[in-house]
Write a structure and sequence with these properties.
Elements (H helix, E strand, L loop, with lengths): L5 E5 L6 H8 L5 E6 L6 H11 L14 E6 L2 E7 L8 H4 L2 H4 L5 E5 L13 E7 L4 E7 L2 H9 L9
């Protein structure tokens, strides 16, 4: 199941807060893929999402640890960065299949590195540079993903 994508333009790093807050108001579990080139803003969006869900501490990039987990009052969030992954089978060593059984929110940067192991996401977010800022393209793949899209209403540029 795939739905119509929507796009949102953001002017700067602070502009990531509005879509992140809307996503945080939607379902508290699911799988979101974060795609984009190096420096596109994937970690920035994940950080804004965690802060919008009420996390007050420092959000570390999981580039070297592969995964950072956060226990929040309304559920768990796992933030993965697969950039340094050499083989998708490495995900089995961290218990990736168990993560998908927890009912947690899972944010995955560089999902293409683990495609043979990862399930289809509820929501796929592509972050593309533009002058000034970024364009975020949101593509729902499930009914849960469509709930995320609905939460973004009013921010969309309406892709045609």
């Amino acid at each position: 199941m795939t739905f119509e994508p929507i796009s949102i333009d953001v002017a700067d790093e602070a502009g990531m807060s509005a879509p992140a807050a809307r996503l945080a108001s939607a379902p508290s579990s699911g799988v979101i893929f974060l795609r984009g080139d190096l420096g596109a803003g994937k970690s920035t969006l994940a950080r804004a999402y965690l802060h919008s869900r009420g996390y007050l501490g420092r959000v570390k990039s999981p580039t070297y640890t592969l995964i950072e987990s956060y226990q929040l009052p309304d559920g768990e969030v796992h933030h993965l960065d697969l950039y340094r992954l050499k083989d998708p089978e490495e995900l089995e060593f961290i218990g990736i299949r168990d993560l998908f059984q927890t009912g947690a929110m899972i944010l995955i940067e560089w999902p293409e590195k683990g495609m043979q192991v990862l399930p289809e996401p509820d929501l796929d977010i592509l972050i593309k540079p533009r002058e000034p800022g970024r364009t975020l393209i949101f593509q729902a793949h499930t009914a849960n993903g469509q709930d995320f899209i609905k939460a973004l209403s009013g921010l969309s540029n309406n892709l045609d």
